């Protein structure tokens, strides 16, 4: 049997299914979670299907999260989506269910769950959910509610189909989702709209970004500036790709100070591998898109220096 067959069997047999994803979710985490929830509910209306975790206000247009009691995990199948390692799973109760499944497209550095379906070459976990539907031989079917969430997830994780992981299969999956009758323009508008504060912060980044001669770039966002602009720590994720629009930027880091005083780090690259750097600082992810945490400004400076070295060595090897 294939991995998708094993997952489908687990879904068919479980009376309760609880869907988790990573903390500080992006569109793919939420899209795959809410999309799969809608698909399972439509196929098995007698089952209890829950999607748990915090819902960022900026993504509320996608749907809502469920609040459930601990007792719901008894005899439950738990599916964790788009989450490379267990320490990043939103809601620690994921480990209290009857069975745990992992569906993800990040490098499989933390092999948890059985069965476990991890395809790092996939554009997104939302793409994998469509593949799961297609492998179900009609047991699972797409609907418009699911298609909107999954299409949003793909758009988000491919940078509107611009990132290297975008493949011919990605476009085929996106086309299948559009065939359900969803409005792609509405999804794209939600994805591209910026609040005034985020727009001002984008200007800050473009005007004040530090770029070394080899193209290693960095920017630090303070809590003071976030308060001035009325922007949440989570909302800065909308601007992660901004430095890459500059032609002379090869790889970059955006450091966002949290209320606790440490720094959430967004790393992106046009060529040099940066996920090993992320792993050294309590993070991880894809070779060209990762996240990490810096405890203080000293660690921020250390990461800036490390990225400069990585980009320089990459330049020398070209």
Strand order of the largest sheet: 6-7-8-9-11-10
Write down the domain tally.
2
Oligomeric state:
single chain
Number of strands: 11
Radius of gyration: 20 Å
Domain DDH: 17-154
Protein name: Phosphoesterase
Pfam family, one: DHHA1
InterPro entries: DDH_dom, DHH_sf, DHHA1_dom, Oligoribo/pAp-PDE_c-di-AMP_PDE
Defining key terms:
alpha/beta, inorganic pyrophosphatase (n-terminal core), single chain, 318 residues, 37% helix, Diaminopimelate Epimerase, Chain A, domain 1, 2 domains
Q: What would you say this structure looks like, in words?
A:
The protein is an alpha/beta fold and 318 residues long. It has two domains: 189 residues, inorganic pyrophosphatase (n-terminal core) (Alpha-Beta Complex), CATH 3.90.1640.10; 122 residues, Diaminopimelate Epimerase, Chain A, domain 1, CATH 3.10.310. It is built from ten helices and eleven strands. β7, α8 and β8 form a beta-alpha-beta unit. α2 runs antiparallel to α4 and α4 runs antiparallel to α5. The protein is globular. The mean pLDDT is 95.
